[in-house]
Recover the amino acids of this structure.
C-alpha cells in the first residue's frame, strides 16, 4: 500500500458528509487521498477480494455507485474514484483526454498495490474504461460499461438530426465551448445540471442526490470548469479512439444500456471495439442504471464478474 495518503478528506464530496448513504456504509468504506506522483486523487475504498475500480460519469462523483458498493464490497476491494477534475480530486488545467485519464487510473491502482483489476465505467467513465482496456490490456481483467457513446468509435450523429437526438446530445457542443458555457451556467448550476438529470432518467433521481452533485459543482469555480474539460478534450480523445479501434479488445466486456435512453446501442458500440461483448438492456431505466435500477445493475455485474471474483489467487 502506498504511503502517499496525505490527509483525511473532509467536507463536501467526502464519504463523511455524503447524504442518505446505505445503512452501515461508513463501517465499510472510507474516503482517502492517493498521490499518484502527478496529482492527488480522492477515492472511497472498502471491501475484501480482488480489486474493482468504479468510474463514474458526468457530472457525478464516486457517490453515483453508493447503492451498489456495499454488496460489491462483499466480494471485491472496491475503489470508487473521483477522476482528475472531479469532487475532491486535484483540478489541473489539462489532461482530460481519455489517454491521460486512463494513465491516471493505472497510476492510482499502482499506488494502491493493484497490478491487475476489473473496471466498471458509466458515461464519461465508460470512455475512460475503454481507454484503460485498449491502452493497458495487461492490467484489466474484465470491463463493464454503461450508457455512453464513444467519440471516435460510435457513429457521429448529424448536426441537424432528429429532435430526440438533439435533446439527448445538445450538451456535447455546449460543453465544448471555450468559456461562455461557464459564464452561462455559473450561478445557475441547478438549472443546467438539474435539467440533465431530469431529461436523461426514466426514474427520477432523488432530490438529495441531484442537490449533492450540484452543490459540489457550485462550490468551486474550478469544479465547474473541469466538468467541461472532458468535452473540450474531445478532439484528442476522438483521435486516440480512432487509433484504439484498430486494436480490438480481447478481454470480456459487458455493455449495459437503459431501455429509455441508449438501450442496445451501448452493446453495438462496444462490438466495434471488442471481440467478446455481452449486451444487456435494463427495462424501465434511463441513463443512470446504478441509481435508477441498482438491483438489476448489481445482478448484471455480479454474474459478469463471477469468473474474476472466483479466479485462483497466486
Amino acid at each position: 500500500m502506498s504511503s502517499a495518503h496525505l490527509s483525511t478528506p473532509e467536507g463536501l464530496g467526502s464519504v463523511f458528509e455524503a447524504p442518505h448513504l446505505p445503512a452501515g456504509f461508513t463501517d465499510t468504506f472510507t474516503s482517502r487521498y492517493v498521490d499518484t506522483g502527478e496529482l492527488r486523487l480522492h477515492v472511497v475504498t472498502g471491501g475484501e477480494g480482488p480489486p474493482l475500480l468504479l468510474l463514474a460519469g458526468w457530472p457525478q462523483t464516486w457517490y453515483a455507485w453508493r447503492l451498489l458498493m456495499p454488496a460489491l464490497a462483499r466480494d471485491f476491494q472496491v475503489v470508487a474514484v473521483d477522476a482528475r477534475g472531479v469532487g475532491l480530486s486535484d483540478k489541473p488545467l489539462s489532461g482530460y483526454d481519455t489517454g491521460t485519464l486512463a494513465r491516471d487510473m493505472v497510476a492510482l491502482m499502482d499506488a494502491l498495490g493493484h497490478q491487475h483489476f476489473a473496471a466498471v465505467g458509466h458515461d464519461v467513465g465508460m470512455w475512460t474504461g475503454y481507454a484503460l482496456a485498449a491502452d493497458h490490456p495487461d492490467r484489466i481483467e474484465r470491463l463493464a460499461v454503461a450508457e455512453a457513446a464513444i467519440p471516435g468509435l460510435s457513429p457521429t450523429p448529424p448536426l441537424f438530426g432528429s429532435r430526440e437526438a438533439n435533446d439527448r446530445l445538445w450538451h456535447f457542443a455546449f460543453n465544448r465551448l471555450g468559456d461562455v458555457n461557464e459564464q452561462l451556467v455559473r450561478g445557475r448550476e441547478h438549472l443546467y445540471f438539474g435539467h440533465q438529470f431530469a431529461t436523461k432518467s426514466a426514474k427520477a433521481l432523488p432530490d438529495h442526490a441531484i442537490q449533492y452533485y450540484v452543490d459540489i459543482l457550485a462550490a468551486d469555480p474550478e469544479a465547474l470548469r473541469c466538468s467541461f474539460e472532458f468535452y473540450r478534450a474531445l478532439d484528442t480523445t476522438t483521435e486516440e479512439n480512432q487509433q484504439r479501434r484498430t486494436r480490438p479488445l480481447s478481454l470480456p466486456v459487458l455493455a449495459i444500456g437503459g431501455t429509455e435512453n441508449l438501450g442496445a446501442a451501448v452493446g453495438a458500440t462496444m462490438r466495434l471495439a471488442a471481440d467478446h461483448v455481452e449486451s444487456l438492456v435494463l427495462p424501465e431505466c434511463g441513463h443512470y442504471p446504478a441509481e435508477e435500477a441498482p438491483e438489476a445493475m448489481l445482478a448484471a455485474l455480479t454474474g459478469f464478474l463471477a469468473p474474476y471474483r472466483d479466479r485462483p489467487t497466486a
Confidence is low (pLDDT under 50) at residues 1-6. The longest strand covers residues 249-258. The chain has 13 helices and eight strands.
